[in-house]
Amino acid sequence: MLNYNSVIKNEFKQESVSVKEISPIMKINLRGKKREFLTSVGKNLNMILPTEANTSSMSDKLTAIWLSPDEWMIVSNEIVNKDTNKHELYEMLFNSISKTNLGAVIDITDQFVQLELKGENIYEIFSAGSPFNFNEFKEKKGSTTQTVLNHVDVILHHKDENVVNLFVRRSFAEHLCSWIEDSASRL
Question: What is the pTM of this model?
């Protein structure tokens, strides 16, 4: 059995902001450019990867987040089994993409922590620690961005109105959570 250490022990709630870790969630990084790559990924995921910058696409079980013209992060919309770190989808993609030299498939489940931030003031917190202009981002459900938040690289996904999924490298997650909690207490 794997030992999953949560970054935040309990859901953090202030008057206008709540933060909780969503764990364990499968995360896969995909890289490729060829038409055959996109066709194979589409068949395996049963969805089309977003090709427009800073967008995402969703199905019932998966979310695909655009990271660059040839890179995507695939995230499970459901909690996965904690007893194993093997994912059928990863194996299927690896066999049809990496082994056939169409692109690269990398399991990044343990590399990134997924935090869900909810509340009316989450964009005030983001604006206090990031140079990114969130005006358009907060208006478009499904929008994504890679930015810096309090000097930490993050990926943000606008999931719903006043709900954002934040992906941060595990080694910076505790520090970033402390900063978010401190910033929320000052609103």
Answer: 0.92
Write out the residue range of the structural domain in which residue 91 sits.
12-185
Q: Is residue 78 part of a domain?
A: yes
- Name residue 158's beta-bridge partners: 164
- Number of domains the chain contains: 1
* Contact assessment for residue 73 and residue 167, using Cβ atoms and an 8 Å cutoff: yes
3-state secondary structure of 73: strand
* Rg of the chain on CA atoms, in Å: 17
**Distance from C-alpha of 98 to C-alpha of 76, rounded to nearest angstrom:** 20
Is there a domain that residue 33 lies in?
yes
Maximal C-alpha separation, the chain: 52
- Quote the pLDDT of residue 1: 34
Bridge-partner residues for 163, per DSSP?
A: 118, 160
Q: Which CATH number fits the domain that encloses residue 98?
A: 3.30.1360.120
Helix (H) or strand (E) holding 182: helix 170-185
Neighbouring CB atoms inside 10 A of 135's CB total 9
Model pLDDT for residues 153-180, shown as the tens digit of each residue: 999 999 999 999 999 999 999 999 999 9
Smallest CA-to-CA distance from 89 within 131, 59, 127 is with: 59
DSSP codes joined into one string, 99-115: TTTS-EEEE-TTTEEEE
Q: pLDDT tens digit string along 126-140?
A: 999 999 999 999 999
Among candidate residues 123, 186, 179, the one with its CA nearest the CA of residue 151 = 179
